[in-house]
Specification:
heterodimer, A: nine-stranded mixed beta sheet, two-stranded antiparallel ribbon, 27% helix, globular, B: alpha+beta, four-stranded antiparallel beta sheet
Chain lengths: 246, 464
């Protein structure tokens, strides 16, 4: 069934290559992979429209413009107030509300964001919408009213067939994103970009609900200490017992 | 990073009074800005007529004038033409810069050393430039281009030059020379024939210099004899950039030597024309990946319809194109110097001698700060010249200054960077020595430094 509408979430994160240029932000790499997949579906004729969505403050418009330059047809910013916390739950709630309005057949998200590494938004969204989910996708094939998803799991590769509409999250090996060509960059400014207030989906109310997550501490992992060599398994067990691990 | 609202385009630092006096320059943006700027300039010129020249108002930033004459220019601030810093880019320019940085790092950087050693540009790089739309940046969409600004070209060339100045040169020549020659002087027929090709996959090459005529370009000896409705070209050109890969050549030949330089005419010649022969490329010190070859013409038959512009006007076209080309070369040298600098400083912070990093020695810090300051000055000269050219104002002096200064700064920067890197800077394992070799051409081609200085002096003579 051609003519699918695909919703792709794009998050503005701190650029992973940030060095001395000040705090540079860019499109989350996993979201970029999700967007690339959406655009490829449209180019193959499997999808009719790709809508890029971002949940954040006004400055996220730059991220959406980049998404438009990479091939999305239109962009929607779900705008939150300055300083509002947008964790996975808030993002998922906003996307769920927007999905109710736009009625996409497929929602493609990155598996996680490189700033908080939560890996929750896709899963929460699927639960809120009561849609099937295919997370850590490394291959996506639409089949009429279904979509076949190959997932990278701890034990190897798992293939699922999900009934649309569904939520998928992109893993690293799903595809290799394209560069925004100069003609597409210039076309991006003509594509529609809509701004919607987050209060429409996040149950309004002032003061806004307090954030559900609070960062208590942030520290680097301890430097790696040396290891010990043992000759055989009994010696290993003895060493583990001695150190109180078992 | 500034997000510039659409109406407010960054403009050059000082608006220019033209020699005619009181003529409003074309300002970027709305007609109101032009009218406002024109009104302000007419006031300035009136002021000048009543005062001796040496007491005329010093060319200050318009912000100064704005405060005292705000009642005459109601909306200059909101038009935003004048007060943004030079490193302010539109959203498209920023996206473009990011894309080219990524492209250069991923698709060009791994091949730089190989291309330099073999003195040959990789096909994948050339193709990549075309695919990304980087060879038709300012060309109109109807010809397959992107319709971006002239400043975008400068940004692209600078970003590419940070990685490989030879690749930047290819992009620069195509955009500021080949494309511009066609769009400025081409007939509709010529534009329809050639522009889609140069936007898609064909490189253009400009043939002016000869063994006997470099800076003295107009004493060229290549001859074009008229025979009915075609011309026969005979002669040989030297130092022709990109000749190895070019599909189209712009050949400057003299149709009537008795007229001197007023006989010079520009011919469009396809590579596969009989009698056109591209010689062996030069074994150069720097920008080796960019081919530089002699090109000979032996009874090359060119139809009259392949004359670009008018007969005998070729000298004017050459000068005109080289004026904007100068800004492109300035951008190349700027990127070269910046790229070299960017490789060096992290090393100086890592390298430890006498218990502290090399960067921590005050002697080093002072040298580094001096070079960084000159780099910044070179950048502002280049960006300002580009914005002047973009807004249709006189820019010849500024373009010459930019090209001259950035070439000198590139030479100084690369030389110092090798010293700061110490022994490793001297080896081919590190990219620094390549920048040092590449920079030297900046003071030589597209008008030597001495020619630039003469041009600047000529401009100054006219001003006083």
């Amino acid at each position: 069934m051609a003519g699918l509408r695909v919703l792709v979430g794009v998050k503005r994160v701190i650029d992973y290559a940030v060095k001395t240029q000040g705090v540079k932000h860019s499109l989350n790499p996993f979201c970029e992979i999700a967007l690339e997949e959406g655009v490829r579906l449209r180019e193959r004729g499997a999808a009719a429209e790709v809508v890029a969505v971002s949940v954040g403050t006004r400055v996220c418009q730059e991220t959406l413009r980049t998404a438009l330059a990479l091939g999305a047809d239109r962009g929607v910013l779900v705008e939150v107030g300055e300083g509002a916390a947008v964790g996975p739950r808030e993002a998922a709630a906003a996307l769920a509300g927007l999905a109710g309005r736009l009625r996409p057949h497929l929602v493609l998200l990155g598996k996680q964001a490189i700033d908080d590494d939560c890996n929750q938004t896709g899963q929460l969204l699927a639960a809120m919408l009561d849609w099937p989910q295919g997370t850590f996708a490394s291959r996506v094939e639409p089949e009429g009213e279904w979509v076949r998803v190959q997932r990278e799991v701890d034990g190897g590769l798992e293939t699922l067939r999900l009934r649309l509409p569904a939520v998928l999250t992109a893993d690293l090996r799903l595809n290799e994103p394209r560069y925004a060509t100069l003609p597409n960059i210039m076309k991006a400014k003509k594509k529609p970009l809509e701004v919607v207030a987050a209060s429409e989906f996040l149950g309004g109310g002032s003061p806004p609900a307090p954030p559900r997550l609070r960062v208590l501490k942030l520290e680097e992992p301890p430097p790696r200490g040396g290891g010990q060599r043992v000759d055989d398994v009994p010696a290993l067990l003895e060493r583990l017992r001695a150190s109180g691990c078992i | 990073m500034f997000v510039v609202p659409p109406a407010a385009r960054p403009g050059p630092l000082q608006p220019r009074e033209t020699a005619a006096g009181g003529v409003a320059p074309a300002a970027a943006g709305s007609k109101m800005a032009a009218a406002a700027a024109g009104g302000w300039l007419r006031n300035c010129t009136k002021l000048k007529r009543n005062m001796p020249a040496y007491l005329a108002p010093w060319r200050a930033s318009p912000c100064v004038f704005r405060s005292s004459k705000s009642e005459l220019m109601p909306n200059l601030a909101s038009d935003g033409v004048v007060c943004a810093p030079l490193q302010t880019f539109t959203e498209e320019e920023t996206m473009l810069k990011n894309m080219v940085t990524k492209f250069a790092q991923e698709r060009v950087a791994p091949l730089v050393q190989k291309m330099d050693e073999n003195s040959k540009m990789e096909d994948s790089v050339i193709q990549g430039l075309f695919e990304q739309g980087l060879m038709s940046i300012a060309l109109g969409e109807e010809y397959g281009g992107t319709g971006a600004s002239f400043f975008s070209i400068i940004l692209v060339v600078e970003e590419l030059a940070k990685v490989d100045p030879a690749v930047a040169l290819l992009c620069e020549l195509q955009n500021t020379l080949t494309n511009k020659l066609f769009t400025t002087y081409g007939t509709e027929e010529q534009k329809r024939t050639y522009l889609p090709r140069v936007a898609k996959d064909t490189i253009g090459s400009f043939c002016l210099s000869e063994a006997g005529s470099g800076s003295d370009a107009f004493s060229l000896k290549t001859r074009a004899e008229k025979k009915g409705d075609y011309y026969i070209i005979n002669g040989s050109k030297m130092w022709i950039s990109l000749a190895e890969h070019a599909g189209i050549f712009f050949v400057m030949a003299n149709t009537d030597p008795s007229l001197g330089y007023r006989g010079i005419t520009c011919f469009i010649v396809d590579r596969d024309t009989e009698g056109l022969h591209v010689g062996k490329k030069e074994d150069k010190l720097g920008i080796r990946a960019s081919s530089t070859c002699p090109v000979t013409f032996e009874n090359v038959k060119v139809p009259e319809t392949n004359i670009l512009g008018q007969v005998g006007q070729g000298y004017k076209y050459a000068i005109g194109m080289l004026n904007t080309g100068r800004i492109g070369i300035a951008a190349q040298m700027l990127g070269l110097a910046q790229g070299c600098f960017d490789h060096t400083i992290p090393y100086t912070k890592e390298r430890v001698q006498f218990g502290k990093s090399v960067f921590d020695f005050q002697g080093m810090q002072h040298q580094i700060a001096q070079v960084a300051t000159q780099l910044e000055a070179a950048r502002l000269l280049t960006y300002n010249a580009a914005r002047l050219a973009e807004t249709g104002r006189p820019f010849i002096k500024e373009a010459s200054m930019a090209k001259y200064y950035t070439a000198e700064v590139a030479t100084l920067t690369t030389s110092k960077c090798i010293e700061w890197m110490g022994g490793v800077g001297f080896t081919k394992n590190y990219p620094i020595e390549k920048y040092y070799r590449d920079c030297k051409i900046g003071t030589i081609y597209e008008g030597t430094s001495n020619i630039q200085l003469s041009t600047i002096a000529k401009s100054l003579a006219q001003e006083y």
